[in-house]
Design goal:
By secondary structure, this protein is of the alpha/beta class. Helices cover about 45% and strands about 20% of the residues. The protein starts with a helix and ends with a strand.
Amino acid sequence: MLAGLIQSVNERWMSYQASKHVWSEWNYLILDIETSGLDAKQDHIVSVGWVCIQNGVIELDTARHIVIESTDVGESVGIHMITDSDIELHGKRQESVLRYLRHLLRDRILVMHHAPLELNFLKQAWKKEVLPAFSVNWLDTLAIERAKANRAQQPIQDGGFRLCACRERYGLPDYDGHDALTDALATAELLLAQIAYQGVDCRLHDLNQMGGGKTSFTPR
């Protein structure tokens, strides 16, 4: 009961702080996940890529791309171009990667493009590895873009919220290839463009209102 009360107080304090401080006073970890399919209960994580934003700047020396040990990649090799041989040579234990991410996210906001899909896979992986419960604040650049379009009463065609389509609206270039690290960098650039559109006084609270939240990863 005491632990729950402490967590509740911490969440209220986080919300209060977010309402006061501009977005650049927070640190962010931008994550992309490549998977063997779209069903988090049946498919698995193939690779993860991330990069951090600190003091409003993308820190390229934090960029990482890690292939996860798994049974096989199946037909998804045609999407992310990671082969069974790549996994055999370079694959890392999923548990170790998740523990590392947990460490990095202790003082950072998790950012993804299409958060529901990414979070579902993280939660399933968390349960599989039976890791300690952990809560994280997150932002979804897709949801932020959708909220912006709704506010402007701007209709978006099918496919218009894909990462490349969102970037195009801000004049950002399209990247060749399709891997987790490239998409993480692309999402980081998109987030900065979205923030610039909101204005210099944009707060984390404003971004949360457009497309953010808090979730918990639990071992069961």
